[in-house]
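Posting this for the archive.
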Amino acid sequence: MDGDEFNILLATDSYKVSHYRQFPPNVTKVYSYFECRGRGHVSSQAEPHKFTESVFFGLQYTLKKYLCGQVVTREKIQQAKEIYQQHFQQDIFNEDGWNYILEEHEGRLPVRIKAVPEGTVVPLGNVLFTVESTDPKCFWIIGWLETILVQTWYPITVATSSRAQKQLLARYLWRTGGSRALLERQLQDFGYRGVSSQETAAIGGAAHLVNFRGSDTMAGVMLLRRYYGCPMAGHSIPAAEHSTVTAWGREREGAAFRHLLQQFPSGAVSVVLNILGKAFGTMVNEKGYKMLPDCLRIIQGDGIDISSLKRVLDAVENAGWSAANLYFGSGGSLLQKVNRDTLNCCFKCSYAEFDGQGVDVYKQPVTDPSKCSKRGQLSLQKTIDGQLVTVEGGKGDQDTDLLRIVFEDGQLLRDFSLEEIRVNAALREEDFSPDPNPDVILQ
């Protein structure tokens, strides 16, 4: 086997390798769930942003790339056995368990995953997906998969932050005048070089494109092309940088810009300018705010995160300009200045069966009541007034449960397209109005 080939037997926190020995001997099922618990903030030199909801995205990528089909082979078992022997310096690897999966399940994972549709906007503190074993002899596999499944925190968090910035832009456009169609391109992803790896760029870049159509992160475009059925998810324009202008020399700066416009005579072109000058006229829109001519717009691409975005929009509004004059680019702040605690994402066991008898499982730490976990089998229900709530203890109505089976025994059962996801994540009508509650956007 190629040593670089992905091996699910090695894709877990190594302390979990011994867990199959730690459960009671009569366990026949383990059931866990994933949620964004809340209390999440993005730090800023000014005020932090507090999120109240999450955008579910990215599980399908993990399932397709890493968990579908035959993922256990004889060679992978042997590789894991040898590596764990060296790692632990003792024999604790569950070789019999993995051989059972290979022989009885043809190397496919005996697991069922139920999840909300990708793109769904869910208030924090609610279940987003559940994971359960489908073979009594493989109850231990759920904990093993926690590591790779919890990594969905990243696309969820980027998609959530990106959508919150879209909400912010929508409300300033409403107040200062501007077409809703501007929103699709008003925040460009410049984060490719600012992240830690090609895969991070791909996942984060794809998450941003759930909400916007502008991106210079080609890795994200290609991920959506391969895993979400979208031939071209994001667009860009020809753009200058300091090197392409300063290479002309200080005395030929005007010639540099003339050359740029000659090279790209139609469509949009982005240039790096510190001062616009007073040569361009203005008009006043229907809401009384100033607009530049249609051929001229401003892009701010330095230091943009959700907090600085609001400060810029405030300053522009206070100066009598419409937000429709502005476009923004965000790099490291969009794709890199997040972590698992931004939305407080967690994966917890809530139910188990012993000799076929169900028992609710939960934790209740006395030092931090906010970390109390949910109990029993869970469902996500919509109330009469349209709110989403988690029902615990197996009491939810399965017919109206928003959690649907997306993966079972190695097979993907629901394949979401980016088009569907964008519809699910679209802004609501109340987002195009004055702030109904300022704390929802920034506090």
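Residues 8-157+342-441 form a domain with the nicotinate phosphoribosyltransferase fold (CATH 3.20.140.10). Residues 40-47, 437-443 have pLDDT under 50 and may be disordered.
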